[in-house]
Every structure is written in structure tokens, then in C-alpha cells.
Amino acid sequence: MPSPNEAVAALLREYSELLGLTGGDQFRVRSYEKAARAVGGYPEDLGALPESALTRVPGVGSSVAAKIAEYRRTGTIKAVDDLRAKVPPGALVLSKVPGVGPKRALQIVGELGITSVGELDEAVRGGRLRGMPGFGPKSEERILRGIAIAASDAALREALGSLAPDATADEICAVLAAHLATPGAGESGPGHGLIRAEDLRGDLHTHTDLTDGTVSLEGMIAAAGARGYEYYAVTDHAPNLVMQRMTDEKVLVQRDQLRALADSTGMVLLHGSELNIAPDGSVDWDEDFLGGFDITVASVHSSFEQDQATMTKRFTVAAQNPRVNIIGHPLTRRIGRRPPVQVDLDALYAACARTGTALEINASPHRMDLPPEHIAAARDAGVKFAIDTDAHSLADLTNVRYGVAAARFGGLTPDDVINCWPLERLLEFLSKS
Ligand SMILES: [Zn+2]
Ligand SMILES: [Zn+2]
After folding, report:
1. What pLDDT is attached to residue 336?
2. Are residues 316 and 401 in the same domain?
3. Does residue 302 sit in the same domain as residue 420?
4. Residue 275 Cα, ligand 2 centroid: separation in angstroms?
């Protein structure tokens, strides 16, 4: 029996997905997705809050609060039921297969009456998609690859989902070792000198409610301080991710606020940003403005479908940028939702090692990116890593153990991970000199 928080989060997420599938307004799609994250990450039991207090949950406005109240009264949310009834069965499931997407899913369901991934697989192999407008050999190939990724993602997700909510890094690592096809050094048992959760001195990729996080700057910093970190970076989204509505003014005001908080915390606060790697490898802002940040994470948030040569060039250009410190969630996969981008991994590792750019081990259990099975090879190529939560809520900060598990699986020691280093050594690395 899921908790009320989980049940409501699942319904809000489904609502957001259904809105996206039916061509709903992108801002509404995003705001329900954000509300789902906020509710899922809220530490108190939503079932026990007085109704008037629901809007005090960060990220929950009046219309979401009304839906939560309705769920508490009736056990359901009518708007979700109504929208679900309008979408043909199977369309939502198919739309999540990498390479299919909403438009094609509706087309496939409408024209072929397919309602499951298994049926889709058979249909592609039987050539039944051929001749449908907009489908060629390339899309057949992409869909088959998507189905394979969806299957392995489902297995990984199930394995991670089977863990207790308070599983330790070691327990998570054991699941990875049992599950992943290409075991790293972690399979050789409790290795000597492997990284432990307590070796981490800080988190270098986190968000606040200035962009799509659900908690204020003060709230995130207080929670990080309570974890005993020595340093902590705030890296809200940069302007080119238009949906997040970041501006120069907003980020500079945040910098002042962060500097003002420095005295009240025992941590060193780093002001950063999560930059967007454009299709040509460039990032937000000019070099001067970027020089005002203590740290930057640069991530791919668009044009995921580039061919391997173009994508590899894109990452290489970003790593060569003297203002880029960490490549965030490098393969941009979302387990069960988005396939990894196609990039020449050896070239990516070489570029990072050569330029002093860290690769992120994104600790979100929805991402696990860099995927654990690639970590050992990256380390052997001379890459340094940052284990980050990419936290959007207070609960997300505890995901760090998934990143530590992945790093242990890959055989990493604290020396391989820049946020295990003393501040001085970290700052030297961030200067890229
Ligand atoms: Zn990102
Ligand atoms: Zn992020």
C-alpha cells in the first residue's frame, strides 16, 4: 500500500503525462510534473495535514491542493480519471518507449490497435509499421532499440524498486552487481579503499525554487548543513532552458543571497549554475559572466537525437570550455523514460581527462547517469568524477547513496571523486589551470 504522498505523486505524474500526450499546455505539463516531485519528496504525511495547510507544501499551489484534498475525500482525482478516459488504452505506455513519443504512440494505437510494448515489438518485426505515414526503416530501427532499452530499464527499475527505502550504498551496490550485465570492480566484494558515503564532503549539483526545485535557497542550505557537508554548490538552471525563466538579474540576486547566508552556516557555499550544452557545444552566457560563478555543471537538455559524431563533438567542445567544470548526467538517460544519447564514450572520457572536466555520477535513482557499468572504463581513461544528487527537494539530498553505490560498483576510491577532496584541492580543480 503506497503512502498518500506516493499515491498522490503518482496521480499527479500521470496527469502531467496525460496532459503532454494530449497536447496540453507545456507550462501546465511542467507544473504538474513539478508538483508530483514536490509531493513525492515531502517529508510529512500528506494524509495527516489539515486541508488549509496543503498549500504550504513547497511547489503546491491552490489547484494542486484542491486535487490533493479531493484525493483524501474520495480516493481519486476526477480530472485524472476524465483525461485517462479520453486517451486510448495503451497510448501512454507506448508513448514512453524511447523513439516512439506521444504523436507516434497515438498514431500506432489508432491505426493498428496495438496496446502493449510486446505487441509493438511484434508489429515492427512483422513490418506492419511500414507504409504508415512518417515511418521508415530508420524509425523501425529506433523503435526496436527503444524497446530493448525499455526492457533493460524496467529490469533495473524493478531491482532498485525492490530495495528498502533506507537501503545503504552497500545494499544498492549489491543489487547493481547482481543486475548489470557488465560488472565493474564492485563485483569483487568489499574492496579496500573503495569510496564510502561518509567520504563525500559536499554536493556540487543542486536546485532551488528559483528554477524547478521545490525548496528555497535557505531550506536547501540548512538541509545540506544538517548532513554535515563541508561545502555545497547551488546550481540552478541557466537562461537557455527557456521553460525555467532564469535571467541575469535573478541569478545575481541569488548570488548575493547565498553570500549573505555564508556566515550562518558552517559550510563553504559555492554559487554555480547548470548550463545548457547547445547543439554546437556552446553554453549559456559569455565567458565574463561565467567567470562570476564558483562552479558550473553543463548538461544536454535538448537535441537528444543527434548522431554520434555530432554529439561527440558537442561534448568535446563543452569540455574544452575553460568555464565548464562538470558534465552533468552525461548520457541524459531517464530510466524507463529517455534512452541514453549516442556518444563515443572513449572520446568523451579522453576530452574530460585532458581538460580537467569531471563527469557526473548523477545519483538520482531515476537517472543513475553516468551508468554504473561505464564508470570503471572512464576511471581507467583518467576521468575524475563528481557524485551529485541534482536535488530538487529535501528528500533528494539523501539519494547520494545511489551515487556512492554506483561509484563503488565502478571501483572508485575517494581520490577519483572531486567532492571527496578537501576544499583547496577542489578549488584548484575548478580553476582548470
Ligand atoms: Zn539537468
Ligand atoms: Zn540539475
Report:
1. 81
2. yes
3. yes
4. 9
Residue 220: which of 387, 394, 38, 363 has the closest Cα? 394
Distances (CA, A) of 13 to 6, 40, 115, 117, 138: 10, 10, 20, 20, 31
- Its domain, for residue 123, covers 91-160
CATH of the domain at 56: 1.10.150.110
Give the three-class secondary structure for 423. Answer: helix
Which ligand minimizes its atom distance to the CA of 211?
A: 2
* Residue 339 Ramachandran class (φ > 0 left, ψ -120 to 50 alpha, else beta): beta
Q: Which ligand is nearest to the Cα of residue 388, counting in written order?
A: 2
Q: Ligand 2 center to residue 292 CA distance, Å?
A: 19
* Ligand number with the minimum distance to the CA of 205: 2
Element (H, E) at 425: helix 423-430
Residue 184 has pLDDT above 80, yes or no: no
State pLDDT tens for residues 124-172: 999 999 888 888 888 898 899 889 888 888 888 888 888 988 899 999 9
- Encode pLDDT of 86-125 as tens digits: 999 899 999 988 888 888 999 999 999 999 999 999 999 9
Which residues, 6 or more positions from 186, have their beta carbon under 8 angstroms from its beta carbon? 173, 176, 177, 194, 372, 408, 409, 410, 411
